[in-house]
Amino acid sequence: MKDITRLTSATLGRANSRRAVNTGVERGSTVLFENAEMLYNDDVRPTYGTDGLSTQDELRRLLIDLEGACDSFILPSGLAALTVPIFAFLQAGDEILVVNSCYAPVRRFVETQLKRYGVVARYYEARLTPAEVLALATPSTKMIYVESPGSLTFDMQDIPGIAALARARGILTLCDNTYGSGVLFKPLAHGVDLSMQALTKYVGGHSDVLIGSISVADKNLAATLYKTIKAFGFFTSADESYLATRGLRTLHLRLKQSGDSALKIARWLEGRPEVLRVVHPGLASHPDHDMFARDFSGSNGLFMVLFKGAKDGNNERQSQAFLNRLKLFGLGFSWGGFESLAVNCEPQVRGRPKLSDEPDPYLAGSSIRFYVGLEDAEDLIADIEQALKVFA
Ligand SMILES: *Cc1c(COP(=O)(O)O)cnc(C)c1O
Questions:
Q1: Is 0.85 surpassed by the pTM of this model?
Q2: How far apart are the first and last CA of the chain?
Q3: Which residue's C-alpha comes closest to atom 4 of ligand 1?
């Protein structure tokens, strides 16, 4: 046979035995079938690389276990893992209720893309009771979007309560559980229908991967999600999947270390004269700490601090001066990696849907969101302490 024939046919029918601890990175578009009868058999999967191969399967297997799901799907980003289920289950004329403390890019999706398809999004206040949330639902309401603790301001929602009332009315619940990382909170066990995570954050854990997941406990929901993902042609690479799987192996350790350090730093900040309020659901001072303690097995490395307002009234400028003095905290929007990060929150707080005429309490001072990574907590405290001088 000619070179070219030998080079191409060498891949056919090779035994796929592996002896390493980890599933390798299996790349592939074409999938080979064992016989012709299997070619058009709908029960055979994968039929093509977009279904994912062994690397993606390993990640899904671990996620199904972690989430207590019947199936988990992976998507190219956390945001895609939120927009796909919204798209999959809503159609023209339907309505979705969205919590106002949601991850901000979700608002962009519902306000631009969903709107084009005739789906109406209405916002509700995070701290409404389940009965108050459901009182907003109309016969067109098909989905309630929850996130707890909410992005940035850590508002708690009674997710088990909302999920139970929604299910009784045939309304789906979609939970952004990135905060819980599949560990601290179990949405499906609390009656939620669709449990999403940005694996980009703690699961990836090293700021080098973008990937999301959506998990369900119901076979019909799984079938609709599969069809939608397939129809759109979304595919998540084996490399990203491999890194997420690798992250899952050490997730518990990293989450605990980061969460413990964050609590320590948050408690230290609570005792500082420059601080108006530390917003951390794991602290007894949080207005919904009891609900957090009821539903969550622990807290992660995120919290917000409201520092006293600037003498000249420019709180945002004061926040920027503080951020610029930090040496151990990178200035960046993500979190869940090994490195600590900080951002100021004023522009994001101002950009949220306004549902009441009251002045926003988070604009009463300089607001900073901290993410505490794996550095030593005392070193981080020393860094924050030297930067506090800007509030003097
Ligand atoms: C980061 C994040 C997302 C989106 O994840 P990406 O992978 O960055 O798209 C969604 N929800 C929350 C709460 C997040 O923090």
A1: yes
A2: 81
A3: 78
